[in-house]
Amino acid sequence: MSQEALPISPARFAEAIKDLPISTLHLKAAELRNSIAHLDYSNEQLLPFTEGTEPDQDCVDAIRENEVVIQRMQERIELLKKEVEDRGASWTEFQSSEELAEAAKVNGVPDVEGVNGIAEAENGQSSDAWRDGTFTTGRIVNGEVVMDGESTEPRTNNSMGGRLDDEALRRAMEERLREDEEEEGGMHL
Questions:
Q1: 3-class secondary structure per residue, 69-83
Q2: Which residue stretches does the UniProt record annotate as biased composition, category Basic and acidic residues (predicted)?
Q3: Alpha carbon of residue 89 to chain centroid
Q4: In sequence order, what are the residues at sequence separation of 6 or more whose Cβ sits closer than 8 angstroms to the Cβ of residue 154?
Q5: How many helices (H) and strands (E) does the chain have?
Q6: Global pTM?
Q7: 10-residue mean pLDDT series, the chain (189 residues)
Q8: Helices 22-46 and 57-86: crossing angle, nearest 10°?
Q9: Cα distance between residue 189 and residue 20, in whole Å
């Protein structure tokens, strides 16, 4: 982290959010959770390089710095919570899936499906970066985005059972681009 770029103090952050609408506070909480998830994931990727007889000091330092940033972001989420509650609104709709799962445990509600309805891995562990639903994964099937958990059945009916090889996909894309250019007078990105 650059020594010139110091983070905003908690007091200034609390003051800055006072005039923001509730919807913006909700977005800020989601943004902070997303950043925390990315930092957690980064730390998990760096961790193997910090172990052994000759740990990589850059990785050790990066993990340590990420932990400081994560703590700062968690403090900001707490400030957002305080601001929402000070306005007389409920924090419940702002809670992350992790917070909801923890509240369920405290209240004796079993968490059968895991956080966000996603069960833990077979070994009982799952990356914190993936637990709260911040990350969602998917893939492109027959030119359409299919999020994990959705059906991957082909949506087209061609001689290959709805699947295209690389060459057929290339031809289909070129044809589609030609059609789009003819219809709209050019390509729009």
A1: HHHHHHHHHHHHHHH
A2: 163-189
A3: 25
A4: 141, 142, 161, 162, 163
A5: 6, 2
A6: 0.55
A7: 77 94 90 93 93 91 95 95 91 76 72 45 51 64 66 47 72 80 58
A8: 160
A9: 33
